Amino acid sequence: MSNNAAIKKEYEINGYVVVPSLFNSDEVDLLRKTTDDIIESARGKSKSDSIHDLEDSHDAAGAPKIRRIKDPVQQFDVYAALARNEKLLSIVRALLGDNVRFHNSKINIKLAEFGAAVEWHQDWAFYPHTNDAVLAVGVALEDLTKDNGPLMVVPGSHRGPVYDHHADGAFCGAIAAGDVADQIKNAVPLIGPAGSITIHHVRTLHGSAINRSGQPRPLLLISYTAADAWPLMGISDFHSFTNHLISGSECTAARLEAVPVRMPLPAAAFQGSIYENQRTQRDRAF
Ligand SMILES: O=C(O)CCC(=O)C(=O)O
């Protein structure tokens, strides 16, 4: 069996897979340096903007404390190149087919000692499509250990229900901890050395704890869809949507599958990032 065939088999069974050390230390050093520079550029800012999502404890007068770099692939050349890197894309094609569209990106930083948790959720709840050939790749910019707030996933949950991600009558991007208590006891951490990638299916139940360790956990997340998966929430900019085709050819024939869907509406009370959306979920796991 080829390596990609083995990756595909594991992904299809479990809804996630880790590929250790896909990127070498030179490749990781460039990503890390770029990321550190962007973090540093938040110094002096007093509120979140189109690049930085600030931690609640960030102080404009002190060292930058940021929880997310927004849209890195769309805003910085180094990450744009990575999203098209052939080592990575060959794996994505093995899982989604030859026609692949870039969907979104972010770097969740999790600075040492306090980096914010992400409550349990399914990405599918944020962006349902006509079929679920949609996934997220995580690129480890530092080692992912069991202590620095790694992504936790529930094996096999990509074949289960789509959970309610609402609170106070609006979408909140987080599942009440009580609704998934029997699931999350089976969760496993996705760990590996810097340069490893994690891949999780769009319906896989996942979350991550506060980083209480002394080691940061910057994780670059890039989502891709099969080109025949069309977003049920619509397309605000068709030109940019078609420009996001990064492999194969465009496909205007949407493939419809009998997948469970809950719409993320009414919209979350707090906008800006998942951390803001999740504010209204009071039954928290982390
Ligand atoms: O950064 C993490 O640990 C989780 C990220 C995540 O699931 C998300 O941002 O949707």
Shape: globular
Radius of gyration over all CA atoms, rounded: 18 Å
Largest sheet: 8 strands, antiparallel
Instruction: Tell me which CATH architecture applies here.
Output: Sandwich
Low-confidence stretches: none
Percent range of helical residues: 10-25%
Under CATH, the topology can be stated as: Jelly Rolls
The set of bound ligands, ions and cofactors reads: 2-oxoglutaric acid
N- to C-terminal distance = 40 Å
Averaged pLDDT? 97
What count of structural domains? 1
Query: How are helices and strands ordered from N to C?
Result: HEHEEHHHEEHEEEEHEEEEHEH
> CATH homologous superfamily - what is it?
q2cbj1_9rhob like domain
The proportion of strand residues reads 15-25%
**Total DSSP helices:** 9
Tell me what you see in this structure:
The chain has 286 residues and is an alpha+beta fold. It has one domain (3-280): Jelly Rolls. It is built from 9 helices and 14 strands. The strands form 3 sheets. Strands 1, 2, 3, 4, 6, 11, 13 and 14 form an 8-stranded antiparallel sheet that branches. Helix 1 crosses helix 5. It binds 2-oxoglutaric acid. The site of 2-oxoglutaric acid has 8 residues, from strand 12.
Summarize the structure.
By secondary structure, this protein is of the alpha+beta class. The chain has helices spanning 3-14, 25-40, 72-75, 77-83, 86-96, 123-126, 181-184, 238-243, 274-277; strands at 16-19, 52-54, 66-70, 100-108, 118-121, 134-140, 152-153, 166-167, 170-171, 188-189, 197-201, 206-208, 219-226, 245-247.
